[in-house]
Amino acid sequence: MRNIILSTVVLSAFAVPAMAQTVTNPQVYGSVGYTYLDADAGNLGAITGRVGAKLTPYLGVEGETSVGVTSDRYNVGDVSTKFEHRYDAAAYAVASVPVQPNLDLFARVGYGVTEIKAKALGLSASEHLDSVNYGAGAEYRLDGQNGIRADWTRRDFRDDGGEADTYALSFVRRF
Fold first, then answer.
1. Rounded to 10 degrees, what is the CA torsion of 49, 55, 57, 60?
2. Nearest C-alpha neighbor of 113 from the set 158, 52, 70, 83
């Protein structure tokens, strides 16, 4: 066991400088678009902004935040409840694979928070939900700096908060 650990340490010592060479010039990008949130309680929409960096040709990180722009009504018996997507924020690790010169497929996994506001019978309440998020998508580059991105992400809310699927379409700009 000790030999395996020592071998791993020695190999890591050689791998770190090689990885550092590829990370010294990360490809930074930003995007803005519309996200449709499909949840059990209703369907909501948001404007989403992302900032990310490809640290290697295949691995990167990104952060996103959304602000709700639509609401939905959900009836429980005779009581109509209005749901609003206040905001959400998340951070992801992203793995991507080039399929064609201008087309990449990607998968991502991360952690996020979402706040939903509900109004019924003159009362309102907000709920702050933590989630483990995972999803996949594609990005098509129109030229060297501009592109279009489509993705699906599942939000698996903690503490029996249920699940929600999001579908996003965004404009991407590389810097």
1. -40
2. 158
> Is residue 96 helix, strand or coil?
strand
Reference 72, options 33, 46, 34; nearest CA is 46
At 42 the three-state DSSP class reads: coil
Under DSSP, the state recorded for 71 is E
Distance CA 135, CA 148 (A): 17
Stated pTM of the model: 0.81
The residue whose two tokens read 């404007």 is 47
28 vs 72: CA distance, rounded Å: 35
Q: How far is CA 141 from the centre of its chain?
A: 19
Residues 156-174: pLDDT tens digits?
999 887 899 999 999 999 9
**Two tokens at 138?**
């594609």
Whole-number Å distance between alpha carbons of 92 and 65: 12
Q: Half-sphere exposure of residue 137, counting CA atoms within 13 Å on the CB side? A: 19
Q: Contact, 24 vs 55, CB < 8 A?
A: no
Render pLDDT for 78-98 as a digit per residue (tens, 0 to 9).
Answer: 888 898 999 999 999 999 999
